[in-house]
Amino acid sequence: MPDLTALTSSHLQAARDSEHGRSAELVLRDGVLRQSILALREGTELAEHNSPHAASIQVLVGRVRVTGEGDPVITAGELQVLTHQRHAVLALEDSVFLLTTVTSQPGEPPQDG
């Protein structure tokens, strides 16, 4: 079972040390369900990308802004469903979040990745 506290600490440090300002790891994979931990140094952005069929973001440390519908700011302890539109994620301060995705709809073969 993944230890989110330990993963948060190690990925936050890795993001701070990385020239790209980020660190990520897939921590759970079950059929079409994926959960990844991502850490971003303040000012680092995950470039605009397509949204999977379903996704949520739970900020564990820090604050992030998700571009798109209303550009919500999500802070530590908050969980939010992600838009189905293209979006980016910007770290407003050093941040770590858990990204939960569903990679296909029922009856579709799972997408690799």
Instruction: Summarize model confidence as the mean pLDDT.
Output: 90
Q: Give the termini separation.
A: 21 Å
Poorly predicted tracts of residues: none
Listing every helix as H and every strand as E from the N terminus to the C terminus, the arrangement reads HEEEEEEEEE
Q: Compute the CA-based radius of gyration.
A: 14 Å
Specify the oligomeric state: single chain
* Estimated share of beta-strand residues: over 45%
Outline type: globular
Task: Name its key features.
113 residues; mainly beta; five-stranded antiparallel sheet; four-stranded antiparallel sheet; 1 helix; 12% helix; globular
Would you write up a description of this structure?
This protein is mainly beta. 12% of the residues lie in helices and 47% in strands. The strands form 2 sheets. The protein has a 5-stranded antiparallel beta sheet with strand order 1-2-9-4-7. The two termini are 21 Å apart. The mean pLDDT is 90.
